[in-house]
């Protein structure tokens, strides 16, 4: 298949290709480069960013093979319409902006007071989170970037490996916390050096591992003894289907003294394009000089951000209303079904993987093989686009990620092809094995207990 | 008046007070600080940011003196409803999100192709700007922050003094380009040392000075000979009422080889709360190593940003439609009237200032007096809130900024009070005097030509 061979190499181009709008950068011959080149040095960090973790250009394949019936289970995107209740609230806000009475200009950079209050009360009920601890934003990825800006580039960080490739390239020293079948996808903290920051995503993208209560307690305790700050990404929390915590603030203190939580309406409310998220920084959290982390973040939000769109915030309010929550639950069930389809990998056992992944993606292990080879084989023989695991870090070698975000029929067709290609395999890892302290029903306990292999 | 005395000092608190949601940062006595304080060092840049330019807490005065009939002409905010055509387009997008056919998830981080195209074609007609040079964002302030992130903190910068206090505190060396009555509010470039970046806002907030074509040519030529990059902020361009350029790309080459332009829908379309802006980085612009600036910015947008809200972008499309542009022109006239009201300072000559300010703010000179003293006097005797000029930098000493963004009746009442307080003064500076190459009508030419004084 055209283009596959060159894709067997790790991606080395820019992210712009992701959206099929690759730009050409040529110098206009009418104005020779030697005359007009600026003397402004390029930021060395940008170089690091280019050479850091990168997603492959899988998304661009649609265009490269226009004749093939390609199905993309690659990048993944939300597909489920937003409940009418929520879109109606947003539309109403739009209309109000055309009236003298309803018009509003700049809002608070930290978000509308009512929405901050509702997030604190609904999402963090009984967790000791106050309205003023909540900062409303345009999304988790943007907030992680602002947190990085606040922290500066001299702090040391630890990140899960694999994990979603946000730009850790800025930081001075990075420790990779390997999350593999060997440690059942939770890092060995006793072997992790002290760092200033610990980025922790749960459920983790791409492994789908949701940390148990005991594991999060261990993490909080580890951070406390090291004087570290956890940056906890709970963007996928709504996919958790068992009793695993949906927030770092569900575990006992000193949770509020060591953790920031970043989250988003993108997945749980289908707001990927609407743009709405939030970050919680408890007022108890301080830097080593005793100064408030929240106050610095407040300053960053006011200086580098001007508030989330008022329309999106109206949507967020509706989502968190009692009726909105019910609508959302229905959508969530749909998404879980979707994930189970892509999870043909798990249900039909065509490959190894976690028995229960709390994510709309499936993380599939092909021990002994290289991610890019598997990616190429699936692409060539099944016409299905996946993401090679190494796009999520060195620890992703041997894996591919299959997205369940997509039109249901397409996901089902892709699963049929994958089963034809790989057949049924029955080797799975049970959640029970790695989820310390989690309870599992007896039926599940009868599933085979083996490390994944193909 | 209660609270005035302490306001006679420059502002030294955090920005959080701006929105009256000041946070208290205390340590919960149940969990002593010595046990839980993290060992994460505070970013030294945050310290710099705290000590940099700061706006006063004027906005908080509403609450401090609830009994007084205070009128705020301080911070300034958009007040004019958005044309129905535009809000209807946004509402339609909201409704579509609740249907299977109309639902869209993540958009391109750089903005929808159609909107990028329309900005290039409508705003930059015949200026050689391509669709791919345009990055759609959630606002100019946010883009300036992302540009700073791209550039890193080792570059040197020049900024107008006074100027709107964005966070230049990050940069290594800062040159202040004084813009005062003495140089007719355009900096003396022959006395400005070379820097990597030159931030230039036109019309300038707060001085209201719109650079003439000849001045911008001079600026571009200065940047070219120094190998500098201009970051041109045209957020207020729609207030320009004469033939001054509304974009840096209106002047001849090498404009595209030396300039980035940042702009926004906030002022010209009333999108302050909706959040939509854009940045233009021509593909011709390169760093000293010949690498593309646009490509690095593209990477920043994809890593630190996830696209502007799809709903806001639909509004932007409607704004730039032929009918939308007409609606906007009407709104613009209204705003100009508003500005002229606040500009009682100019029309009624109650204070010195530029004869024609291309801004909805009036920058008023009180030679020999301190900004904070004037601010206090106006507050105490006229119950009107303004912004002390020093909030915009050391060059703002002796000035106050009066906003024309507000309810028309309130602005008119404030002007009556100001005239009562200061009487009529006839001393003005004519635009002709500082605007090299600009033509002025004969009537205007008969106005007195003097430096401002009270």
UniProtKB/TrEMBL annotation, chains A, B:
* Family matches, as SUPFAM superfamilies: PLP-dependent transferases (SSF53383)
Provide a GO biological process annotation: systemic acquired resistance, salicylic acid mediated signaling pathway
Q: Which UniProt keywords apply?
A: Aminotransferase, Pyridoxal phosphate, Transferase
The record's GO molecular-function terms, alphabetically, read:
pyridoxal phosphate binding; transaminase activity
What sequence ranges are listed for the domain Aminotransferase class I/classII large? Answer: 69-418
Q: Which Pfam families match?
A: Aminotran_1_2
Write down the required cofactor(s).
pyridoxal 5'-phosphate
Glycoprotein recorded as keyword: no
What family does this belong to?
Belongs to the class-I pyridoxal-phosphate-dependent aminotransferase family. LL-diaminopimelate aminotransferase subfamily.
Protein name stated in the entry: Aminotransferase class I/classII large domain-containing protein
